[in-house]
Amino acid sequence: MKKLLSKLCVSWVLLVVAILKVTSLQAAEIKVAVAANFYKPVLALVDHYQKETGHHVQVSAGSTGKLYAQIKNGAPFEVFLAADQQRPSLLVEEGLAEPSSQFTYALGTLVLWSNNPELVDGKGEILKEELTHIAICNPKTAPYGAAAVSAMKNLSVYNKLEPKFVEGQSVGQTYQQISSGAVDLGFVALSQVLVDKQLNGGSLWLVPNELYSPIKQDAVLLKQGSNNAAAKQFLAYLQTEQSKQLIKDFGYDVK
Asked: In the record, which residues are listed under signal peptide (predicted)?
């Protein structure tokens, strides 16, 4: 009887080892390039995805324009989560992304934010005052920067404020400039200043949607990921109701 139990134990251990080996072989890595505004949400999405699938997702964040340039220059990304529709569409046109894979995963919201809880008023009237500096991300490479420029022009304050710009290369860098106190206020994404759906300190003005073009953030499967089933699965995961709810919780709208 003891010998039988011993054999069964050995067999069970070998079975578990075999299962672990198979799981290890099936686990894949996905290289994702993500716009800086969506960095926190994608980390939360990746955490859920990895737990459910066993795959590993490597995330690189930056401005949409710079990531686009890196992809054109051969960076080994497989999935691109941009902050606009333009760059994913260009990559499709240039043969660097799969045409049928492109979709809008989030609609962004622009805010004027300060780390000072008493600085920014609820109507954005502070933009008409004499400011020393105002932070903005590069409008040529970062869609949130382009949206900020559009909003200021529509408010007829752009010419007055342009000499005061402190420009970040991405909306992530702009957020750091404001949160550190290096700049008193500036334009960032709503998702960057929320924690558990609440403002994480400071003061903000939700910039009205009519002051800038909708920030439609598109995802696309890059040609380098066309043979990676896990990359395709990750894009499908972003379109599940579970993922859409999480994206909403971070301050975005979804289609």
From this structure: 1-27
